């Protein structure tokens, strides 16, 4: 996040800009794009039957001989120093094996924070874990109790007598604003960017809007709680974890505990939802340390409350968006700035202005974010960090301008579609947002919308329609490795340490491998979730599908070379080079003369081999510097708002997605719809209630932190443009996060259309929909 | 564990409670979350094993509801139309699992200003039965509830039953609650209304509002305005100002005070309108 990083990234961008396309990944489109094979079919999740039968074993379910159980004590105050920590009663309680506090915890270093300058790192918190008597946030772990049963551990944890000398804490968002920091960069982007004098252009604009939008903190609520089972055998550690970062977790633990990397094995075959939360937090370290001290396997599962207190969520934001336009609605100024919370020990910058930077063409721009230091559990990545809340602000503002100008909001957006990336001039690899708008307006029946608010009514219910765009960048992680093992009977096993948090990683890569290797689906085995396999990067930033796809493509190329070498001069393929053959129908086939071919089995048999194995890493993701690569969405919403009580019901949602090739329509619909439901929760009910006096989260559980229930979720229609991205593996872009973006703005805009009330603060609650506010 | 007691008789229960420091437990749906811990604090006395605490019985004096009767049991029972509001409330308390565990007596003893059971019981002139070692006493529900989370129950007393007098079993009742979403939500405002209709006119009206004052309350002024009124005109007689005068709502995270009192008046009008609808032939 330094100026050095900005200079480096900008140099890379410049150099890659000079390099001819064909030398770069994606310069020559992936030959599988547009091929009708296993990719694109509605294959059901391969692990579905296991999950339905309860046979899929999650991290906190692994049975082990001699297992003991951990309970945690969390700090009830925000800042302070422990003055008294009496563990005698807990130690004497039945079944207790160990009480771990800062006094007897092994001395460990800090966990390096994950970030773009340290891609191998995995930490979500750079605070010491049980290393001293200092309390740094409300919820920080004070002690761990280990016992023969979970009940004994829970009981003994209550017996710990803790006194604290409380110190003043920073816990007020508004009070922290004067001390806000301005980081040099936000992820790979320079933070403060401007073109022209946007403030002057705004003042001179024929039409303009300039407003502040706020979003509250949000907390993670994956169905599976964070849990680990840790056990040591001598100096070797095995950790069953629920993680989005299998190999990086193993590397981090090895470093922290002074072990060889090969002596640490992290297993995570199933994860019950990640969304950014299943990273590396304190609980893994505590369980590993405790297991070593008692020399027995340890299970530690966080309670729902502990997930709220110990695993961060999305930062609150306060954002200013201002847009100026000429008489035709062409943007002359676009400004997006604001504040969010990011203490120096957290990893997530909540990049709410990044999406806006490529969304619209304007004559002048100004962008920048400020960070506030508060004493909180480190905030973290949560589905579309940044874009989810940033799109609420910018897409509400566009709607405000459209209303002020009496232009249809879809039309206003179409008038400001950029030809190339607005700030850099870089060409888009593929962008069909305009197509998505037209497709969606038609499918939704947008022409039934009244341009005047409060014009449609059904009894006491006011009806309204709204729309909003969303976007999310294409990310491919560097250095994902993968092994292909091909046996004489024509079976292939693909192995990488990757993670499947329920979205279908193994299924979709099995489809991909079948097409890439020219084998039937049932000849493919996809292994993952084990750090002993070739190391895959973290599953985050919607990057995993294309990252693994690139590794499979690279490994298949290497396999081709190896097979041709093995085939030798007696083969019909003799003399052909790798570029002259393709993998099809269970073997190698000459592209020019398809009669020249040989099966994998025949090649291996003649060479006297049972199998062949290659390991390769995907090419560095230089395409992201050559092209502007982003997914887009056009969201449409219909609401009913009671004119009497202000009750708000979302009755219809449509998302039209421009996300490249759809690899598996069945799973894609589910992934995108799930994202939209999270957007619905953000709009209607999700809100961390934070007591600014005590720094304590007041609603740490699902009884008071309301995620959408079935009755809140309407019919959700999901469709897509289906246009492949010529620059990405398979023509695909990740779809894990785009679903949430734009949804809250579409709902707020529909509420305005229904009621004439503009709500700029989330969530949209009924008491603010009647009465004077927002009129 | 030795801190969990489950006596089989009321006498045993009272003896255990006489020692002090005992927390009665019924469904646990309020008590357990309120501990903010994984285990209930201190000495807990489970009342669900006591005879006579579960179930509904009818006698000449009226209706008796055992304090440990669950919401689900209330919802499924065959009861006079005057208790329709209570049954409608029973299916809106939390989710199904809460309704299976939570009890009416627990709802009263927990004494939340937003307790869903209170307004329907207030319009039924309900009395509560408290048993202690000094004997049995009865109190009107409105006197039992003394403030937010406060009741007239002494630490060594048990709430054993609710009594609804025969005089209050006439007419029909209706319940409505309003939250930020359709279901699984804490009330911003809720109302119960019981009306007797004779020859197209209201002969008796009982109205109560919850979540808009320290304890839920009846609205005598609005009730007298309705008494004698033609059914068709009744909803319009409920004026915002009269409702607001009877309430003392809070500004809080769920809604503003002004919103609450306006919403309460609207809910009352809707419930009265529902009850005054001509019955289709």
From TrEMBL, chain A:
Q: What SMART domains does the record tag this protein with?
A: Ald_Xan_dh_C (SM01008)
Any idea which UniProt keywords this protein has? Molybdenum, Oxidoreductase
What GO annotations for molecular function exist for this entry?
Answer: iron ion binding; oxidoreductase activity
InterPro entries documented for this protein: Ald_Oxase/Xan_DH_a/b, Ald_Oxase/Xan_DH_a/b_sf, Ald_Oxase/xanthine_DH-like, AldOxase/xan_DH_MoCoBD1, AldOxase/xan_DH_MoCoBD2, AldOxase/xan_DH_Mopterin-bd_sf
Q: Which Pfam families match?
A: Ald_Xan_dh_C, MoCoBD_1, MoCoBD_2
On whether Oxidoreductase is a keyword of this UniProt record, the answer is: yes
Q: Which Gene3D superfamilies match?
A: Aldehyde oxidase/xanthine dehydrogenase, a/b hammerhead, Aldehyde oxidase/xanthine dehydrogenase, molybdopterin binding domain
Q: Does the keyword Oxidoreductase apply?
A: yes
Domain Aldehyde oxidase/xanthine dehydrogenase a/b hammerhead, by residue range, is: 53-168
State the protein's name. Xanthine dehydrogenase family protein molybdopterin-binding subunit
Species name for this entry? Szabonella alba
UniProtKB/TrEMBL annotation, chain B:
Q: Which residues form the FAD-binding PCMH-type domain?
A: 1-169
Q: Which GO molecular function annotation, any one, does this entry have?
A: oxidoreductase activity
What keywords appear on the UniProt entry? FAD, Flavoprotein, Oxidoreductase
* Matches recorded under Gene3D superfamilies: 3.30.465.10, CO dehydrogenase flavoprotein, C-terminal domain, Uridine Diphospho-n-acetylenolpyruvylglucosamine Reductase, domain 2
Supply the InterPro entries for this chain.
CO_DH_flav_C, CO_DH_flav_C_dom_sf, Diverse_Substr_Oxidored, FAD-bd_PCMH, FAD-bd_PCMH-like_sf, FAD-bd_PCMH_sub1, FAD-bd_PCMH_sub2, Mopterin_DH_FAD-bd
Superkingdom in the source lineage: Bacteria
For the keyword Flavoprotein, the answer is: yes
Listed name of the protein: FAD binding domain-containing protein
